[in-house]
């Protein structure tokens, strides 16, 4: 009996991970996401009710399921660093296991053992934590799964991705209840209840999405347009720092740009760290790469160039050092940055330092306590260790028409951070990135798709420029207007809408997650301080 029970628990934990992975990008069998937690709910129930088993088995089988889930969806991290991948998988497994285990404890203490809303609140609370702390890696926030299907979640302009997380979790809970009633031959199980459940959990959200979708005559879309050219140079990310000099790379990018530029183009975009080799911000205007850009701009009146750059800045002798300052010699200290710059012919260069840094690559989380994590730093070619940052959103002014949000790579996964740029009146979102570190895997595909959700949340058009696969243009409904192929040298041009209206999400942020945190704290208080109900 015990052996059969363990086999049953094993199969339930594996089934949950497989359902989840098959629903995720790039497989995209999205209906499976509404079943993915059902096996775990049955697993929890059977372990809770089996008096012959230690309650700690919930940790064993929960860990198995969540570790497999993380491996199947983010296996590609291994291509950059085995140590970094293992660290990421274990941290994410622990974070997913925590709400599941706490939910199990709450179930044990409750007389009704029907505390599934507490699981929903706990899970979303952990998703919010994984968005805000220094180990932040919100890659598998449940609401991200709908990115390839923006027509289903146009209501993200009100809820953000946590609305999608709530949808997934609530649907799983209700489906589990329905299956339980059917298995127990409960008289309350009937076709009318099935129909009502399907309508509320599936057809209603889809109907709302269709109703919310802006029409072509909507005043939001009747705005000015701007002409943008994006260059995907397709440099091998592991060779770009050695195979060509920084000047040779820039000249090649400019040659590519010339094939699409015309008098109507207002903005030209290069990818993350397109200008590399270390640019001193104290003398930026005199750097040979910037001089080359300025010379190029003289031939193209009214053009603005947005580019990624590898920059650094020395501290003055009496200046307060940042937490990420590095020592150059006995007297000099400096900060290194992953930077976005905007250059045009007549105005000062505008600078933004990436603020959402990749844990273990550009930032050592809680360095004073976790200094040993330096041994797990993921090698992505350029600077590593803790980089400096601005710590807040900044917008660029590109001529008289455009206000740009310069989003750098990983930052595009953070809906709450991208909204800060738009709240500062950015009317176009520009994402510069370098997505080929993990090879031709699901990683770069997931990253591109997540950008579509930022368009819906903010109702802003997006121009995305990658060093290689995938660059593209996305409209304010999350539709892909144009995109490039993987590992291909490409230049693309598009007129995109300039939109200035503000969404509900821009005004109120992740309000669903805030409510979930309050409810989760109430349940944890009951778990710790209240006696078991009888």
Give an account of the 3D structure:
The chain is an alpha/beta fold. The protein folds into 2 domains: 2-215 and 511-529; 225-309 and 340-352 and 389-500, Nitrilase/N-carbamoyl-D-aminoacid amidohydrolase (4-Layer Sandwich), CATH 3.60.110. The protein has helices at 2-23, 38-49, 57-74, 82-109, 116-132, 156-159, 161-183, 191-212, 246-258, 288-297, 415-423, 442-458, 504-508, 511-529; strands at residues 225-232, 265-269, 275-280, 304-314, 326-327, 333-343, 350-353, 396-398, 402-408, 428-433, 462-466, 472-474, 480-483, 490-497. Strands 1, 2, 3, 4, 5, 6, 7 and 14 form an 8-stranded mixed beta sheet that branches. A 6-stranded mixed beta sheet has the order 8-9-10-11-12-13, with helices on one face. It starts with a helix and ends in a 5-residue tail after the last helix. The model is unreliable at 379-383 (pLDDT under 50).
């Amino acid at each position: 009996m015990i052996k059969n029970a363990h086999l049953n628990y094993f199969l339930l934990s594996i089934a949950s991970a497989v359902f989840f992975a098959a629903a995720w990008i790039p497989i995209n069998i999205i209906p499976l996401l509404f079943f993915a937690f059902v096996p775990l709910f049955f697993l929890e129930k059977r372990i809770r009710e089996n008096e012959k088993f230690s309650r700690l088995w919930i940790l064993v089988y929960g860990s198995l399921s969540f570790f497999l889930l993380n491996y199947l969806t983010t296996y590609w991290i291994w291509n950059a660093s085995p140590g970094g991948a293992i660290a990421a998988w274990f941290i994410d497994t622990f974070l997913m296991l925590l709400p599941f285990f706490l939910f199990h404890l709450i179930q044990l203490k409750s007389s009704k053992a029907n505390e599934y809303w507490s699981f929903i609140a706990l899970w979303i609370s952990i998703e919010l934590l994984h968005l805000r702390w220094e180990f932040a890696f919100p890659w598998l926030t449940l609401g991200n799964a709908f990115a390839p299907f923006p027509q289903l979640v146009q209501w993200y302009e009100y809820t953000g991705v946590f609305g999608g997380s709530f949808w997934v979790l609530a649907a799983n809970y209700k489906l589990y209840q329905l299956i339980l009633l059917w298995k127990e031959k409960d008289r309350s199980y009937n076709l009318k209840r099935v129909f009502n459940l399907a309508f509320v959990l599936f057809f209603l959200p889809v109907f709302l999405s269709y109703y919310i979708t802006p029409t072509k005559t909507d005043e939001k879309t009747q705005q000015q347009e701007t002409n943008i050219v994006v260059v995907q140079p397709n440099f091998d990310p592991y060779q770009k720092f050695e195979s060509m000099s920084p000047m040779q790379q820039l000249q090649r990018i400019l040659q590519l740009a010339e094939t699409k530029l015309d008098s109507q183009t207002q903005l030209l975009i290069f990818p993350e760290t397109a200008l590399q080799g270390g640019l001193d911000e104290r003398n930026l205007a005199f750097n040979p790469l910037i001089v080359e850009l300025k010379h190029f701009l003289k031939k193209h009146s009214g053009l603005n160039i947005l580019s990624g750059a590898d920059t650094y800045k020395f501290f003055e002798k009496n200046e307060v050092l940042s937490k990420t300052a590095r020592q150059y010699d006995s007297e000099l200290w400096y900060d290194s940055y992953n930077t976005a710059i905007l250059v045009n012919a007549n105005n000062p260069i505008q600078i933004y330092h990436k603020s959402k840094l990749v844990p273990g690559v550009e930032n050592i989380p809680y360095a004073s306590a976790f200094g040993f994590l330096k041994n797990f730093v993921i090698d992505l070619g350029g600077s590593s260790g803790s980089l400096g940052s601005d710590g807040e959103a900044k917008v660029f002014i590109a001529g008289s028409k455009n206000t740009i949000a310069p989003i750098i790579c990983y930052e595009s996964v953070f809906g709450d951070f991208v909204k800060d740029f738009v709240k500062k009146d950015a009317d176009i979102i520009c994402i510069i990135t370098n997505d080929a570190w993990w090879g031709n895997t699901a990683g770069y595909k997931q990253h591109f798709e997540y950008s579509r959700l930022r368009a819906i949340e903010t109702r802003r058009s997006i121009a995305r420029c990658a060093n290689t696969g995938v660059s593209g243009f996305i409209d304010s409904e999350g539709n892909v207007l144009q995109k490039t192929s993987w590992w291909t040298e490409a230049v693309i041009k598009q007129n995109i809408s300039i939109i200035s209206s503000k969404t509900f999400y821009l005004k109120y942020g992740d309000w669903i997650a805030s409510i979930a945190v309050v409810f989760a704290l109430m349940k944890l208080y009951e778990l710790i301080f209240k006696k078991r109900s009888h």
